[in-house]
Amino acid sequence: MFANTGAGAEAAGAVALAKAAEDAGFESIWAIEHVLVPQGYESQYPYDASGRMMGSDAEDIPMPDPLIWLSYIAAVTTRIQLATGVMILPQRNPAILAKEVATLDQLSGGRMNLGVGVGWLEEEFDALGVPFARRGARTDDNIAAMRALWAPGAAVYEGEFTRYDGVFCNPRPPRGSVPIIIGGHSKLAARRAGRLGDGFFPGKGGPTLLGELFDVVRRTAEESGRDPAAIEMTCGGKLEGSYIERLASLGVSRMILGSPGLAEIERLGTDLVDKFADLEPAIP
Q1: Predicted confidence band of residue 274 (pLDDT cuts 50, 70, 90)
Q2: ∠ CA(230), CA(231), CA(233), 5° rounding?
Q3: In whole angstroms, what separates CA 147 from the centre of its chain?
Q4: At the N or C end, where does the chain have fewer CB atoms within 10 A?
Q5: Structural contact between residues 90 and 141, judged by C-beta atoms closer than 8 angstroms
Q6: In sequence order, which residues have a C-beta less than 8 Å from that of residue 218 and are 6 or more positions away?
């Protein structure tokens, strides 16, 4: 579930939500991000019909940094997986991000998952001094650069935007790497997931569109010499048994809730996990 907005944006709410979700058996807890939200932005938010984040004209929205927020709740949980959903990767320095993510992964006992996207809010890129153009190419380069830094030995990497000539970045992830989940609802994002991702998370779409995108992921993976079955599929959707079964039949193994309140987690938690437990493929 997404949890670092609303009640989860405050310390007490974050702890209560994380503990309730873990106790209820939720597999993972996710944190969204925007470093800046420019006043009066004109870019269209692609995940709401209004074209605005949170479905309104609100711009001054409490939104804690996802890595700091996940570190905070990692300290009060032991099992639940931690994930960004999604981090805007081309806005980040890959070496600094690799260091931060590996540190959180190590301190949490290997629970970190890095969901990434290319971003849509052009005004935010402008305010940060990062080019909006070619952000997809920068994302690909950053993924390769981070994996080089997480690998054993001194990292040697040369890409279009980044170059390392024998550097160490410690700590390293205890699992050898951190799973990278590609976010986005386009065929470009699906192809990126097939080429580079450990998982794919379309931000919107019903079963028909999702099935088409998942086919693109799997086909691209095969063309890239990768195992399509190794790429985990994540999505959101309605909390109805028949709908969940349709998603499972498409290969979805994780379903994410929007930012629920504590009472909703306590109400849905065990029943929701029980619904998933009997499905094939099983929801983790």
Answers
A1: low
A2: 130
A3: 16
A4: C
A5: no
A6: 194, 228, 231
User: Nearest Cα to 197, choosing from 86, 120, 93?
Assistant: 86
What's the pLDDT at 263? 66
φ/ψ of residue 200, rounded to 5: -135, 135
Distance (Å, whole) CA 135 – CA 144: 14
Using the CB atoms, write b or e for 210-229: b if 16+ within 10 Å: bbebbebbbebbeeeebebe
Cβ neighbour number for residue 282 with a 10 Å cutoff? 10
Per-residue pLDDT tens over the stretch 136-185 = 999 999 999 999 999 999 999 999 999 999 999 999 999 999 999 999 99
Percent above pLDDT 70 for the chain: 90
| Residue type present at position 121 | L
Rounded to two decimals, what is the model's pTM? 0.91
Do β-strands 163-167 and 180-183 pair in parallel, antiparallel, or remain unpaired?
unpaired
Q: Residue 82: enclosing H or E segment and its boundaries?
A: strand 81-84
